[in-house]
Amino acid sequence: MDFAREVFRLIRTISPQDMQEMERAFLDGTGYPSLLLMEHAAQAVVEALARWVKAGSRVLFACGGGNNGGDGAAAARLWMQRGGKADVWLLRNPSQMRADAGVNACLLNACGAALNVLYSDVPAIAPDCAAIVDALYGTGLNRPLEGAAL
Questions:
Q1: How many Å separate Cα 46 from the centre of its chain?
Q2: CB of 57 within 8 A of CB of 85?
Q3: How many CA atoms lie within 13 A of 44 on its CB side?
Q4: Sequence-ordered list of residues with C-beta below 8 angstroms from that of 8, at least 6 positions apart, any chain
Q5: What is the rounded distance in angstroms from the CA atom of residue 34 to the CA atom of residue 12?
Q6: pLDDT below 50 — which residues of the chain?
Q7: Comparing C-alpha atoms, which of 40, 93, 41 is closest to residue 63?
Q8: Residue 117: strand pairing partners
Q9: Tens digits of per-residue pLDDT, 63-97?
Q10: In the sheet that 115-117 helps form, which strands lie side by side, from edge to edge?
Q11: pTM for the whole structure
Q12: How far is the CA of 126 from the CAs of 27, 61, 99, 132, in angstroms?
C-alpha cells in the first residue's frame, strides 16, 4: 500500500459535534474557565498575525454573534494592546452577545475600539488593511448565510 493511502486511512475528520463534546469534556474535566479558553484562542490568533503583518498594522476583525465572534473580539482587543489598529465588524451589538462572547465584545468596546455593528450594509475595507480575521462562524454553521454575513 502506498504512503498517501495509508495516511489518508488514518485521518479522521472532527465534526462540529465532536469538537463541542471534546471542548465540553475538557472544560468539565479540568475546571478550566471557558472565558480563559477563548482568551488563549485569541492569543494564538494574534501571535499568527504578528508573524504575517507588521507591528501596528490595521487588521479587520469580522465577528459573528457567537463564540467565534467572542474569539474575534478578544483577538481585536489583544491586537490593539500590542499597538495594532483594529477595525471591528460585528453581526450583533455587544450587549446582545451571550456568555463569554458578550464579555469579550463588551471588553473590546470598553477599550475604545471603533465597532461597526452590521445590520445590512457592509462598509468598505480600509485600503491600508493588512489582514482580515474571519471570526464570523465556526464549523457548526448549518444554515445559508444571509444579510450582512453574506
A1: 11
A2: yes
A3: 7
A4: none
A5: 26
A6: none
A7: 93
A8: 90
A9: 988 888 899 999 999 999 999 999 999 988 888 88
A10: 115-117, 85-90, 58-63, 129-135
A11: 0.83
A12: 38, 12, 30, 11
Residues 140 and 17: their CA atoms lie apart, in Å, by 8
Q: Give the C-alpha separation, 21 to 103, whole Å.
A: 23
What pLDDT, on a 0 to 100 scale, did the predictor assign at position 106? 87
Rounded to the nearest 10 degrees, the angle between the axes of helix 34-52 and helix 67-81 is 50
The answer to whether residues 53 and 131 touch, using CB atoms and an 8 Å cutoff, is yes
- Determine the length of the chain: 150
Up-side HSE of residue 115: CA atoms within 13 Å toward CB?
Answer: 25
Place of cell 471570526: 135
Q: What is the DSSP string of the chain?
A: --HHHHHHHH--PPPHHHHHHHHHHHHHHH---HHHHHHHHHHHHHHHHHHHS-TT-EEEEEE-SSHHHHHHHHHHHHHHHTT-EEEEEESS-GGGS-HHHHHHHHHHHHTT--EEE-SS--PPPPTTEEEEEEES--TT--S---GGG-
